[in-house]
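hey can u run this one w/ S-adenosylmethionine bound, need the structure tokens asap thx
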Amino acid sequence: MIDQFKLLISDDCDQATIKQLKQLAISYGFAVVNSLDELNDNDSKLAIFTLNKNHLCLNLMLDDRRHHLTFDFIEGELAFRTKRVSKSNESIAKAIGCKPNFRPKVLDATAGMGRDALIMATLGCQVLMQERNLAVFLLLEDALNRFRLVDSQMSELMSLGFNDSNKVMINEPIDVIYLDPMFPQRKKSALVKKEMRLFKLLVGDDPDADNLLTQSINYFKKQNLAGRVVVKRPVSAPHLNEMKPNHQIRSKNHRYDIYLVIS
Ligand SMILES: C[S@@+](CC[C@H](N)C(=O)[O-])C[C@H]1O[C@@H](n2cnc3c(N)ncnc32)[C@H](O)[C@@H]1O
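ok here u go:
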């Protein structure tokens, strides 16, 4: 897991970029550097934020090379997928309980790159995201801000908080808590997409994931609400907290374990 961050403000940055980066440095106490040379393979815990063409990027070392990580909802594979999203072709729709005249309000308690959240919002659900990793939160907030400029209707369905869901659950009524914690990677690294390897390098594992399931179930019980907790897992992964779900939905690469809480 990477836990040191700096900001690059190089000589060729324009005034708007400098202002935005300085604001980030002040808000989060990041040190400022003037060149990416500070990033070398001895600094496996350090990553450097830059702004490239209005996209916040995180520069980090992988396999002795520099790479950058940025999140985006407007272009690329994910945006393409959203164009074809429908209740019938997304197993997540069934998992979270979308019905012809009902779209659940979802707390995505492990927001990550916001991909699942975007799919749920595209299905018409209101999605409240929580992310506890600072760098992931900032990259996601940046993607969401850019998205707001081009699709206000969709982005209105999505909100984001910088919280640890193990400590803070939501205060307002919701129908579904969606969990997708990190899972130890078992495939050979060459087979895993570079973006996923960079993400894994940044976040590490989520060793406290079992607790999230208990917390989520308790949220509904304490509020005396009926609801469901949906856990996304790799197909052959054990159940979170060794708890058998009420239902399972399997797709090609994933499994959704569904826990129903009756008030
Ligand atoms: C596998 S990723 C989620 C991917 C996400 N579903 C997507 O579609 O992009 C897991 C994310 O959950 C975050 N996370 C894990 N436990 C958390 C917690 N207790 N509170 C908030 N975020 C958490 C991690 O920091 C990581 O960014």
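The CA atoms of residues 72 and 200 lie 18 Å apart. anyway lmk if its weird
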